[in-house]
Amino acid sequence: MADTMIPAEEPEAPTNRPPAMHRLREWLSRRYVRHILIITVVVGFVLLPLCWLMLAAMNQSGGPASSIMQDIQQTIFVFTLVSIPITSFVFAVLLYSLFGWKGKSGDAPPNNDNPAIRTNAVAVITWTATSSLLAGFLVVWGLVELADITADSYGSTSATGQPKTEDALIVNVTGQQWVWTFEYPQYDKVATDVLYLPKDRPVLFNVTSVDVIHNFWAVELGIKIDANPGAITQTGVTPNKEGTFNVRCAELCGLHHAYMETKIEVLPDQAFTTLMRENGGGQTR
Amino acid sequence: MKRFLVALVSVLVGAGVVAGVAFFASSTSGEPPLLVAEPAGTVDTPEGPVNAANLELYVYPNSSDAVPGPTEGVNALYASQGWPFYWPSTTLQVPANSLVTVTIYQYDSGGKVFNPFWAKVHGTVDGTMTVNGKTVTEVDPTKVAHTFTVHQYPESGQPYLFVSVPLPDLGANAVGNADPYVDTPKEVTFTFRTGAPGTYVWNCEFPCGDQYQEFGGPMQQRGWMSGTLEVV
User: Fold this and answer.
1) Sign of CA dihedral B111, B112, B114, B116
2) What's the DSSP call for residue B171?
3) Which of the listed residues A53, A276, B29, B54 has the most CB atoms within 10 Å of its CB?
């Protein structure tokens, strides 16, 4: 058996590369790096108020009026906050590229013989790890919140379609070009064009349509579900704030789709019962 | 100079295309002429005297020589479709903070309304209307011809307004070919109160059109079974 010749490893060539920290300091001392980092911080601080402005805009109509909507707003806030550093850095590089390296009139054309850009392992690892961590955080946050919202918005058991709790209010919602109507089967089928709800009582919505597809969107309550002709879809919520809120259609449904909206009145439980009684509905729950 | 001319021509061509599209859209919008409610003096109410106004509308089963139907813009293309329509207009204007009495002469047949909510009277004074002089709060949901339903327009600051009355079926035999129209329409009268100025939309909630579930055609077209109500 012939001896296998294993080539001996060549000794590493002597190098004069400085240590990593030294290289980092050297990199940070470069003019363009400093400028891009400064622009990143400035843009970041400029964008930061967006987190609160968005919530303020969403709450102009009085919301949030349920824990579901509170969860949704919290998620939007966190996602916006997390995205600001990345957005700021991208804008900083963009702005510096546009203005910092802008050629002047009379400049010679770029030299095509400049050295090629080489891979920078530190940079690649840094941005990959950072992006993965951020994306992973958003995925985990999103899944946890989604599970939480889903649990809150399904007021019925999946097997029977009946409410999970005995005191739940059932509202049959019908979408029709271009008006919403609401029927209360527990109150002698009182029917209204305004959605009246009691505060702090679970509500189960049975949603349908008699013509085309609509979408029942209780804006400040944070629930939205399709209204399909010939089918019943279910969603649920527990309003936790009294006030006047909005129902809109969120599915393009014809000429007056943009006007297919109505009010939600969230009332104290006793006031709600009184209102139903005044409309001919005796409480049967 | 050549570059300047090319840019100028490009801008002019672009502006011409935009202007052409705008002109086409404007000329074919089919928005019917404004129908203003007639002032009718004042009415004494528990809250004091209130201005009153009257509005008169007709509902026909289809266009005829006697009443050709809406012809504005694109509506002229639909004249031969046999669509029902409100006449003389679907663009209505009524005074603010007033009692508005609407009289509708209904000449069409009908059937069962999908949602019984529309067989009831909503949003009128006392929650009633009169049909051929008889006061009612609802009609038979299997004999509804059309509805006149005013609802909210998503503009902030204007008061909520929701009015809906069912127009009873005339009966297919009574309608016949409807040309000329019968002499004995259903006469529906109701009164509602307006608040501060605002703009609303209204439409028929009885499926009297074509296409899916009969909610297409005239149901989707102003000048026929949909319109606007301006409170000024």
Assistant:
1) positive
2) -
3) A276
Assess whether pLDDT exceeds 90 at residue B139: yes
Residue of B nearest to A181 (CA): B117
Mean pLDDT across B52-61 = 94
Judging contacts by C-beta atoms under 8 Å, the chain B residues touching residue A183 are 117
Closest Cα in chain B, distance from residue A111 (Å): 29
In a domain, A138, yes or no: yes
pLDDT at A248: 95
Q: How many domains does chain A have?
A: 2
CATH number for position A187? 2.60.40.420
ipTM: 0.83
Which residue matches tokens 């070009």?
Answer: A177
Question: Quick check: A183 and A171 in contact, CB under 8 A?
Answer: yes
On whether any CB of chain A is under 8 Å from the CB of B114, the answer is yes
Does A259 contact B152 at a Cβ distance shorter than 8 Å? yes
Residue A168 to residues A48, A155, A279, Cα–Cα distance (Å): 41, 8, 20
Asked whether the beta carbons of A72 and A58 are under 8 A apart, the reply is no
Instruction: Say yes or no: B10 and B98 in one domain.
Output: no
**Nearest-angstrom CA–CA distance, A247 and A215:** 10
Q: What stretches in chain A show pLDDT beneath 70? A: 1-17, 158-159, 283-285
Nearest by CB to B226, which of A248, A255, A258?
A: A255
> pLDDT tens digits, residue range A88-129?
999 999 999 999 888 777 877 777 777 777 777 877 898 899
Give residues with Cβ within 8 angstroms of B216, minimum separation 6: B209, B210
CA-to-CA distance for A51 and B135, rounded, in angstroms?
Answer: 57
Look at residue A159 in the predicted model and tell me its pLDDT: 67
**Using the 8-state DSSP alphabet, how is residue A253 labeled?**
-
Coil, strand or helix: which one is A96?
helix
Alpha-carbon gap: B154 to the closest alpha carbon of chain A (Å): 6
Where in the sequence is the domain holding A138, given as residue range(s)? 21-99+133-153
Q: Look at residue B195 in the predicted model and tell me its pLDDT.
A: 93
pTM: predicted TM-score of the whole model, two decimal places: 0.82
Q: Name the B residues in 33-92 with CB < 8 Å from any A CB.
A: none
- Cβ-based neighbours of B51, under 8 Å, separated by 6 or more: B39, B41, B42, B43, B95, B97, B98, B99
Q: What's the rounded mean pLDDT across residues B195-223?
A: 87
Q: Which residues of A are less than 8 Å from B220 in CB distance?
A: 177, 254-255
pLDDT tens readout for residues B10-33 = 999 999 999 999 888 777 776 789
B218 with B161, same domain: the answer is yes
A142 & A178 share domain: no
Question: Of B23-27, B84-88, B124-128, which gets the smallest average pLDDT?
Answer: B23-27
* H or E, element range at B165: strand B163-168
By C-alpha distance, the chain B residue nearest A230 is: B213
Please check whether residue A146 lies inside any domain of the structure.
Answer: yes
What amino acid is encoded at B154 in this protein? Answer: P
